[in-house]
Amino acid sequence: MSAKGVIFAGGGTGGHIYPSIAIAEHLQHHQPGMHISVICSTRSIDQRVLDGSGLDFDTVPAQPFGVSPKVLVRFAATWPGVVRACRRAMRACFDEWSIGADECVLVAMGGFVSPPAVWAARSLGVRRVLVNLDAVPGRANRFLAPRVDRVFSTYAFAGATRVGPIVRSAARVAASAAECRERLGLDPAMRTLLVTGASQGARSINEFVLGLCAQHPEMFEGWQILHQAGEDQHEEVEGRYRALSVSARVVGLVDEVGLMWGACDAALSRAGAGSVAEVWINRIPTIFMPYPYHRDAHQKHNVQPLVDSEGAILIEDLIDADANVRAHGAIVGRLLSDDALRQGLRQQLAQVGAGDGADEIAIALQNL
């Protein structure tokens, strides 16, 4: 039976929500009458992102799973209530859309919101799909894969259908560099380095770049910095750039992230699945500095295919700012000073090629 409604489940970070928006855009393009909603967490980032998407959503009090006794107890204690909340949200969608459970598909996007949503969908007879975004599947996705009807993955994953990068329209470059810079309040004629820790920022990256500016100001001559610092670090980072007399524009969460990619000539970035996909699609010469605290180092594995193809540069976050400056200052300097290096990275990214994972999944969902 063709699907008449799709419910996405994911949240906690922008990385679990933005791909839902990307797939939803293509669903609406292919089937304008398709009903779409999202089940997300109660974290403020979820509402902040979804408020600007135009999608309906319901929040549930889902809790992350962890190995510490305290986290396990909290997870177990809240699980039944969260499953019931997911079930209520789904039934409300069926009623509003005037469809049956068998005419709906749940798309789990990974993370801690997905397991209770899949559990609820299973009990209601809703078809279930899992989208895996990381090179190393997390605990939730490994748990859910045998319990869904189909799995899509942007990386190799046993039993999954491989798809291309999943990137929403607002994260794609759609204007000239000068126009993007002007819209972001930057000098339209000046070369631009984008520094980003994604939607929540990254303190160690912030400290690394500020350390470079303080110790090697000559490195940034002729460049301006566009820095996505995270909402809670915005004012501090902005003030420190001002004290260093560095030409910088500091932003928090940006909805039209395609403007940031379009404005930059080079980037320094975390390596979450979303950031890697956006660099890949937009062909941005980038140094990736993966989050250093994941036990499975999945951010490092996310970017490895681009590194292996010589389309990106990978460095290790040593956490300490001075250590990062000593170890990695030279490669940042080379990225800024070497036009041929930047052009070579762009060319290699183009040769790697990339399909449109969001469109591939949207087409499949219509006829699941």
Q: In terms of topology, how is this protein built?
A:
Elements: E1 5-9, H1 18-30, E2 35-40, H2 44-51, E3 56-59, H3 69-97, E4 104-108, H4 114-124, E5 127-132, H5 139-144, E6 150-153, E7 161-162, H6 177-183, E8 191-196, H7 203-215, E9 223-228, H8 234-244, E10 248-251, H9 257-263, E11 266-269, H10 273-282, E12 286-288, H11 298-308, E13 313-314, H12 321-337, H13 339-352, H14 357-366
Parallel strand pairs: 1-2, 1-4, 2-3, 4-5, 5-6, 6-7, 8-9, 8-11, 9-10, 11-12, 12-13
Helical percentage: 40-55%
- The separation of the N and C termini measures 7 Å
Q: Let me know the CATH homologous superfamily of the largest domain.
A: Glycogen Phosphorylase B
Sheet with the most strands: spatial strand order: 3-2-1-4-5-6-7
Largest sheet, described in full? 7 strands, parallel
CATH class term of the largest domain: Alpha Beta
Q: Examine the secondary-structure arrangement and name the CATH architecture of the largest domain.
A: 3-Layer(aba) Sandwich
Indicate the radius of gyration in whole angstroms: 21 Å
Number of helices, counting only DSSP H or I runs of 4 residues or more: 14
Average residue-wise pLDDT: 94
Total beta strands: 13
Number of structural domains: 2
Strand content: 15-25%
Order of helices and strands: EHEHEHEHEHEEHEHEHEHEHEHEHHH
